[in-house]
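Hello support,

Our group uses your service weekly, and this is the first time we've seen a run hang past the timeout. The protein is Oxidoreductase. I'm not sure whether the cause is the sequence or the server load. Input pasted verbatim:
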Amino acid sequence: MENKKVLVSGASMAGLTSAYWLNENGFDVTIVERASKIRGGGYPIDVRGSAINIVQMMGIHEELNAQNLNNMKFNILDSQNNIISKFTDESMKDNKDIEIPRGDLTHALYKAVQEKNIKIIFNDSIKTIVALNNGVETELESGIKKQYDLVVGADGIHSNTRKLTFGEEENFTKYLGHCFTGFTMENYLDMHKEAVIYSEAGRTAIMYATENKESVHAFLVFSDEKEPFVNHRNIEKHKELVKNKFKNISGIVPKLLEALDKSEEIFFDTTTQVIMDDWSKDNIVLTGDAAHAPSFLTGQGSSLAIIGSYILANELKNKNNIDDALSNYEKVMKPLAEINQKAIENEGSFILYPKNEEEMEKRSIILKQLENMSTEDMEAHDMIDITRVIEYPNLSNQ
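Update from on-call engineer: The timeout came from a worker crash unrelated to the input. Re-ran successfully.
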């Protein structure tokens, strides 16, 4: 197929990748994005396995690799801010992986999309979606009405497209026990390509420094068996919740709470997976976190978003009709998404986010092992998730 009109909802990793490859495959693509611009900043994320092939084919691999944060140092602190353990991330990564600030990746993808002259509508979002016999009619919040052959929901865990098409979010989400808030603060420790971490049972404070010497990405993560209900756009309620959870905590926490109070832009969310029986309905399809969020604990979300979006565009190109393309997209992509979601059962997130005293003890043992490993030991100690690689044309040689 080609010459079909497609509306992509969302301009993050999945949306930009989808738009790029749909355009490349002969489709007329428009992106609609709620924000006023492509979002910058953000914590470091990974591009791994088969996603490496895709960014190479998009011509942005060299740019991403130049900003690679691999071999970041992690310093574990005590309550007096003394380093009690340290390690690098090389023991947990493949040497082809690219670790990069989230905003740098989205801007590289956006640049590739701009070069294709793909239309992007900012400050807007889908208000209604009505299925037609051979397509979809949409109305945006701005009042723009238009018909498309296909709508792609690439609008994240809290997908508006999914809600309008399949129903309320809580029907498709699985809470994993952590809540986190992220924000930017002054780099008062003069860090560079490193992180400092202070944990008490169920509460962790982290500062990530990339190559920007002026600021760091700060995170306050807490564990809670019951998912708290907080409106995701109510910043003051977020701050109040986090400050209550971290009051009377030592280490770097007081500095982070001061910065949190002053911050006007924070990101609050829960560690959540999206699990759905079907990703498509009535010429509307979901991709990326909207369809199969694995949670940030897996470190696979960005790569899965890139891979799934490429496969979706490729299936739409190669099949004779939309129904067959969407069916095969799910058939190919679902096993990879499900395996990565199930990997959380054996995940090692307690190293960074211990939920209780038992996990604090377990973390101490693991950190001692990491410190005592030689480079050769680390290379032999396979902590790489082989499910990053998918058997699919152009993606199977990682």
